[in-house]
């Protein structure tokens, strides 16, 4: 797929998406958000794609936030529309995707950049990454789900401290409070994400999607137990359930079709 602000390619069933605005530290302008919405929809509907790795170009930044230069003319209604549209088309779209998304946080993940990483299902950070939600330094608050997802990931006290002080934290601190899953040297960042997706790729795709959906229902207070029960039942209707059980009984490796 040809985009202006993203590099995207599928290799061995993994979709690699790189936000490519290095001079602006990969800040999310409107065009980048529209392209992200497109590539997220593509990932969701393309059977070949079994997982997504999202990162930023260069060694300095994953994403340094929403593009501040686009904000200056906004009024309240436009601000609300910006947040709603972004949440619907990009941030919630990632979280609700049937495909697992891993954020490979290769540097600054600030404001909308950290919100983007938090919308992903798993976060890996390079050891030089810095993470924060500095919106209050601009007279704003997080608008792409940051107040909700940071609280879910690190708890109320840490979330209030990070958001109200606007302090950036190191990758090591982020790992300590559960904001990122792993911290690795920059050279190992993508291979660590691949290592995880290569395991996920061996599992039954519909079961993987169903499990993520039930977990997300839990954190969003959206009838998690009922979601789990219904999704559990649907798993029995899949060809992959039959394949998984047959493979176990026949003592061989399962070969899942995703159906
Ligand atoms: C637009 C940005 C940008 C951003 C950096 N740049 N962040 N442009 N929007 N969010 C641009 C700079 O203007 C500069 O371009 C170039 O990238 C390099 O940045 P510098 O500031 O010169 O680099 P450095 O001194 O190393 O500082 C790095 C930094 C700083 C600490 C990451 O750039 C910074 O604080 N950026 C803003 C972070 C932030 O506040 N993010 C939250 C945004 S609000 P020029 O052309 O000037 O050289 C948000 C709201 C989300 O995300 C919710 C919306 C609904």
UniProtKB/TrEMBL annotation:
Keywords (A to Z) from UniProt: Lyase
Protein name, UniProt field: Enoyl-CoA hydratase
Entry superkingdom: Bacteria
PROSITE patterns: ENOYL_COA_HYDRATASE (PS00166)
Gene Ontology BP terms: fatty acid beta-oxidation
SUPFAM superfamilies according to UniProt: ClpP/crotonase
Similarity comment: Belongs to the enoyl-CoA hydratase/isomerase family.
InterPro entries documented for this protein: ClpP/crotonase-like_dom_sf, Enoyl-CoA_hyd/isom_CS, Enoyl-CoA_hydra/iso, Enoyl-CoA_hydra_C
GO MF, one example: hydro-lyase activity
PANTHER family per the UniProt record, alphabetical: ENOYL-COA HYDRATASE, MITOCHONDRIAL, ENOYL-COA HYDRATASE-RELATED
């Amino acid at each position: 797929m040809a985009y202006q602000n993203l590099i995207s390619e599928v290799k061995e069933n993994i979709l690699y998406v790189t936000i490519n605005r290095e001079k602006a530290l990969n800040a999310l302008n409107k065009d980048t958000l529209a392209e992200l919405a497109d590539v997220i929809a593509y990932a969701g509907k393309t059977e070949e794609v079994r997982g997504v790795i999202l990162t930023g170009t260069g060694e300095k930044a994953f994403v340094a936030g929403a593009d501040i230069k686009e904000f200056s003319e906004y009024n309240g209604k436009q601000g609300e529309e910006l947040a709603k549209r972004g949440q619907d088309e990009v941030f919630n779209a990632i979280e609700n995707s049937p495909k697992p998304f891993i954020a490979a946080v290769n540097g600054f993940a600030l404001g909308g950049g950290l919100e983007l990483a938090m919308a992903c299902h798993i976060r890996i950070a390079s050891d030089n990454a810095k993470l924060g939600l500095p919106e209050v330094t601009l007279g704003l608050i997080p608008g792409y789900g940051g107040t909700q997802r940071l609280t879910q990931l690190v708890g109320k006290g840490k979330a209030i401290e990070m958001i109200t002080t606007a302090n950036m934290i190191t990758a090591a601190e982020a790992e300590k409070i559960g904001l990122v899953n792993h911290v690795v040297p920059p050279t190992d960042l993508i291979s660590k994400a691949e290592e995880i997706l290569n395991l996920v790729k061996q599992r039954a795709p519909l079961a993987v999607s169903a499990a993520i959906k039930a977990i997300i229902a839990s954190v969003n207070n959206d009838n998690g137990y009922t979601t789990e029960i219904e999704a559990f039942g649907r798993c029995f209707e899949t060809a992959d359930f039959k394949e998984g059980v047959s493979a176990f009984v026949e003592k061989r490796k399962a070969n899942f079709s995703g159906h």
